[in-house]
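Translate sequence into structure tokens.
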Amino acid sequence: MKILFVLLVIVVIVLLGLAALAVLDRRADRTEWDRLGALQPVDPQTFDPGMVADLPEPARRYFTYAIRPGTPLFPVVEIEMTGRFGLGTREDPRYQPMRARQVLAAPEGFVWAMRTTGGMQVAGSDSGRWTRFRLFGLIPVARTGGDADHARSAFGRHVSEAVIWSPAALLPGPGIVWTAMDDNTARVTVCHGDLSQAVDVRLGADGRPEAVSLDRWTNANPEKTYRLQPFGAVLSDVREVGGYRISFHTEAGNLFGTDGYFPFFIADVTEIRFPDAPR
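Result follows.
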């Protein structure tokens, strides 16, 4: 009986510790979310096509499609989404239904808070500073971040997502360079501190983004070794929100453009907001 009692006490202590860790993680999510939201300009400029007149033609086409003239330029975006998240491989995707919300403030950072809604429930968050996911809200299954490899990988993610969901964040300015790769492909290279990422966006004749692609620093490979690998997304279901034309359906994954492509992230935006700056 004494042994059983000791084991029970140990289990209770472990569960309490895991619960406390989950609370601290959610508090960190909220703190980072608020920090990024505070980067929204208080008195934003409005979009004028003259702002992009000196860019290569594909880049001009992207911006004049994505942002209506006179639209307030809000680089910080909040997104609600549903969809499927693959927990397996190309051969066995093990897709799980998921719901997520995100704040995106390129090039400074992002927070993506997700939970699966079927089967073995996984919940947690990804950001420029950490990746933290737990089973059933308690048991850690992924807990990384705080190093140069993670920061570089995360930077590739949020620059590519800015192309999809936050075009105002990529207007010409310090650390942002646009070049033409061909008649229907523009490349944006974003530098922020020690980080740099190039992302290609393939456009339709009208300037609608059809796909994004990049060489992303990642360890999503059998060796679990960080290296540059193709990553990308196919975009569709464009809708207009607040003067922005945004793709509401995204399918993204590793080894984009190769036979090994696995779209592990399939998302449908349910709401996108360009909130005013906190006052």
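Note: The radius of gyration is 20 Å.
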